[in-house]
Design a protein that fits this description.
The complex is a heterodimer. By secondary structure, chain A is an all-alpha fold. Chain A folds into two domains: 118 residues, no CATH class; 70 residues. Helix content of chain A is 79%, strand content 0%. Chain A is globular, with a radius of gyration of 18 Å. Chain B is mostly helical. Chain B has a two-stranded antiparallel ribbon. In chain B, helix 3 packs antiparallel against helix 4 and helix 9 runs parallel beside helix 12. The longest helix of chain B is centred in the first third of the chain and has 36 residues. The chains are: A mainly alpha, B mainly alpha. Chains A and B meet through helix 8 and helix 9 of A and helix 4 and helix 7 of B.
Chain lengths: 189, 492
């Protein structure tokens, strides 16, 4: 079997496993697992799919995605939509919304995977800082808000999620600083 | 390919150079005009406090807001013009990104002016939570939001520009630590006395401003969320910390961006090179952390602040100005001493800036002592410090550079009578303005008050006369800039 085809089957298997009801319930029973495990996993599946798309598919997409702008715009729109708490709630209680999530979030990852390398380095920098700032803003919001944002999750869950976002943002900032200042690469940020 | 690298300097095509010169001149003219307008706003406020002009309290606080934010904005855009002009000689910078930042900046300025003079926002540049949301009818939520949005837009523009700086510096030097001279400082590379001071200073400015803008990006959005969703009440002390980190870093960095003019131009006027060395690198390395660590001296009156933060702020404030100031001030004295320098207006202004910078930090160091701060912080002592620092430290660097670009860089002509008159009017006015503020603070006159008690009016009137002299000097500088700058060739 060709390596790309093997990878494609593995990705499909991963997507199916994530969609299996027991796995789905397990990952969506807490806000932390839902937001920091299930959704990133769907994004990664999409990202890798974007990398292994057949070359002629990529060639067909390329004229519509000059400098990666269309793909990044699509990714930002999908990401913004799935950041709305009520949409996350709806995904848990209504299967059409859940299905939409399982389709659109990997598309977002795919758009990112195809477009990010084509994006101007300055635009990459602006987006990285904006993503980082979003981690910090949301972390702070989730920690300080007096009310539950999602009807399906407890306030304590929301607080833990906020703390983890702040922690992730802080680690990201340190890793980025070390890389730019001293050329030390901890993770590929 | 039109661009080639020759020795330590980058060469650009003629069209790139022409475009770059127009861009730098646009930054200078726009920035200096905003400075002049802000000086007129300051003059109006002093005249109102001195009962020579009637201004309603609402309008006074709107003018105070535009004066604060406008001066910081003008300082940023003008000092960036100076920095970019010199940095592009050593690393390959993009004209397009420079222009992009300029137009984003102008967009932000329009938003801010609209929020203040149309929306009546008068909550000061500090937009301290929860004031923007509780104006008691003085301004709308929308006006406060547009003000913060304007700041956010300006921050994005500068972020784009700093990313271009970072890309270009990393492309040439590999890491920011090497660009800062740390590899030479710590003996990993031999000391290169020709390592450009402009690169060292720009790297420091890039690092601290990137951090400042990152903090601003977070706190401005949190403020916007509070405006539209008042149930969300962020920790007021954390908001204040972030706002002052953002604000202090950004305004402080304008000085470190502008000082590049001293490093680059004094050697031209004296015929002696400005050599970088280990103490120079050590000073700039130290200031990276000091500029970011001193901001809590704005919060010495906030008793819930952790004691260690305030102690660190006090200690760092004592030392903050010293490293770079010492290497720069001492370097400037040594380079000028017995050099046979011709005192053009540009050279005079650059040398004056060393005095303004050195003397201007003294009131700040005094005010950074907790015991002094307890009495002085909310008085006019603080405006005394930053007017000294900006009028006699920062602006002479910027105007000196404008004179260099307007013709003095090539001709080395003797200053005209009108330039000398402008210089001394500005010098005396700026010195008096600052000293009157300091004397007012020492007499416990509060700051940010639209109306003054009868006992304070004499100070305000003296301040008005002093401010008039500053405006007169600045007007002459601006006229010279507007007449000579547009057609001037790039000095070689």
């Amino acid at each position: 079997m060709y390596p790309k085809a093997k990878q494609a089957w593995l990705l499909l298997a991963a997507l199916v496993i994530l969609a299996l009801p027991p796995m789905q319930r397990f990952l969506e029973q807490s806000m932390v697992m839902h937001m920091l495990v299930q959704i990133p996993a769907l994004v990664i599946i999409g990202w890798i799919t974007g990398k292994i798309l057949p070359e002629n598919w990529k060639d067909n997409i390329a004229p519509w995605n000059r400098w990666g702008i269309t793909g990044i715009a699509l990714a930002i729109i999908i990401m913004t939509y799935w950041m709305l708490p009520r949409v996350q709630d709806a995904a848990i209680s209504e299967w059409p919304v859940e299905l939409t999530k399982f389709i659109t979030v990997p598309i977002m990852g795919m758009a990112l995977g195809i477009s990010w390398p084509q994006l101007n380095p300055i635009a990459q920098g602006v987006l990285k800082l904006e993503f980082w700032a979003t981690f910090m803003r949301l972390g702070w919001l989730y920690l300080d808000l007096p009310d539950r944002l999602c009807a399906n999750y407890l306030l304590s869950d929301q607080r833990v999620f906020g703390q983890l976002l702040l922690l992730a943002g802080s680690i990201w900032a340190v890793a980025w600083t070390l890389r730019i200042m001293f050329g030390i690469r901890i993770v590929n940020t | 390919m039109s661009t080639t690298e020759v020795s330590s300097k980058i060469e650009y095509s003629d069209s790139e150079d022409r475009n770059a010169l127009i861009a730098v001149k646009s930054h200078l003219i726009a920035g200096l005009l905003v400075f002049l307008l802000m000086m007129l706003a300051g003059l109006a406020m002093r005249a109102a406090q001195g009962t020579w002009l009637e201004i309603g309290a609402d309008l006074f606080y709107q003018i105070m807001t535009v004066h604060g934010v406008g001066v910081v904005g003008a300082a940023m855009i003008t000092s960036t013009g100076v920095q970019w002009y010199f940095l592009r000689q050593y690393v390959k910078l993009s004209n397009g990104v420079f222009w992009t930042n300029f137009f984003i900046f102008l967009t932000g300025v329009v938003l801010i002016l609209g929020s203040i003079f149309v929306g009546k926002y008068g909550g000061a540049w500090t937009f301290l939570f929860p004031l923007p949301a509780i104006s008691m009818g003085a301004w709308s939520t929308g006006a406060a939001a547009v003000f913060q949005l304007g700041l956010l837009v300006i921050g994005v523009g500068f972020l784009i520009l700093y990313l271009d700086f970072g890309r270009a510096i990393l492309a040439r030097y590999g890491s920011l630590s090497r660009a800062l001279g740390l590899t030479q400082l710590f003996g990993k590379e031999p000391v290169d006395y020709k390592h450009p001071a402009a690169v060292v200073a720009s790297t420091m400015v890039l690092i601290v401003n990137f951090m400042g803008i990152a903090a601003g990006a977070v706190v401005l959005v949190m403020g916007l969320i509070n405006l539209f969703y008042p149930e969300f009440k962020p920790d007021a002390l954390l908001m204040k910390n972030l706002i002052y980190f953002f604000g202090h870093v950004v305004i402080n960095a304008t000085m470190y961006a502008s000082v590049i003019a001293v490093y680059e131009l004094l050697p031209r006027y004296t015929g002696r090179p400005w050599k970088t060395n280990k103490p120079f690198y050590a000073a700039w390395f130290a200031i990276v952390f000091m500029v970011m660590g001193v901001y809590p001296h704005h919060l010495l009156m906030d008793f819930p602040m952790p004691a260690w933060g305030l102690i660190v702020a006090q200690v760092l404030s004592f030392g903050s100005g010293i490293p770079v100031l010492v290497v720069t001030g001492y370097g400037a004295l040594m380079i000028v001493y017995r050099s046979g320098i011709k005192w053009s207006t540009s050279a005079k202004l650059l040398f004056l800036s060393m005095f303004g910078w050195a003397a201007g930090v003294i009131p700040a160091i005094l005010d950074a002592m907790v015991t002094v701060n307890r009495t002085f912080h909310n008085t006019l002592w603080v405006p005394g410090h930053f007017h000294f620092y900006l009028l006699l430290g920062l602006l002479p660097m910027l105007i000196g550079f404008a004179y260099f670009l307007a013709g003095e860089g090539d001709s080395k002509e003797r200053p005209k009578a009108v330039d000398s008159f402008g210089f001394y009017a500005y010098l005396i006015g700026a010195f008096m303005t600052s000293m009157v503020f300091l004397a007012s603070g020492a007499n416990s006159i509060p700051r940010r008050w639209a109306a003054h008690l009868p006992e304070w009016i004499g100070f305000a009137q003296a301040g008005t006369i002093a401010a008039s002299l500053v405006v007169l000097g600045m007007l002459l500088f601006i006229m010279r800039a507007l007449i000579s700058l547009p057609g001037a060739n790039n000095p070689r």
